[in-house]
């Protein structure tokens, strides 16, 4: 049985994303007390493992700083759509330790500055 521990140095925060824009979530894990590399799992809702969804819409990145023994994990949602809204969780596990944190994504419509004036752009002078 894994014990819950404070492995996160930085946790992803809940955001309101603009439709069509990209957003990135960052989590940092302190591995100085770990015997092996931690495994990060990004989950949407209760059980949807996002690693299987990696591709054009979802990108994952990880890096390691030898000096501080901190792993940095990133999840980017490319061109946010309404379906990306909801609760997310990131879980980190390493042999006998685990930690998780939750965050929310809400999606707002893109700001249309000149929607009223769209036809003006096509008028001939």
Automatic annotation (TrEMBL):
Pfam family, one: I-set
Species name: Ilyodon furcidens (goldbreast splitfin)
Protein name: Immunoglobulin domain-containing protein
Keyword tags: Repeat
Superkingdom per UniProt: Eukaryota
Domain Immunoglobulin: start-end pairs: 12-108
Family annotation (InterPro entries): Ig-like_dom_sf, Ig-like_fold, Ig_I-set, Ig_sub, Striated_Muscle_Regulatory
């Amino acid at each position: 049985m894994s014990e819950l521990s404070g492995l996160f140095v930085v946790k992803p925060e809940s955001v309101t994303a603009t439709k069509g824009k990209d957003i990135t979530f960052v989590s940092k894990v302190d591995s100085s007390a770990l015997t092996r590399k931690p495994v990060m799992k990004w989950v949407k809702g209760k059980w949807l493992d996002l690693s299987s969804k990696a591709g054009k819409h979802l990108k994952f990145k990880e890096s390691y700083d030898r000096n501080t023994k901190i792993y940095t994990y990133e999840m980017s949602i490319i061109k946010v759509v309404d379906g990306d809204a909801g609760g997310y969780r990131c879980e980190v596990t390493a042999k006998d330790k685990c930690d998780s944190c939750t965050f929310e994504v809400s999606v707002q419509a893109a700001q249309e500055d000149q929607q009223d004036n769209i036809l003006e752009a096509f008028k001939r002078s």
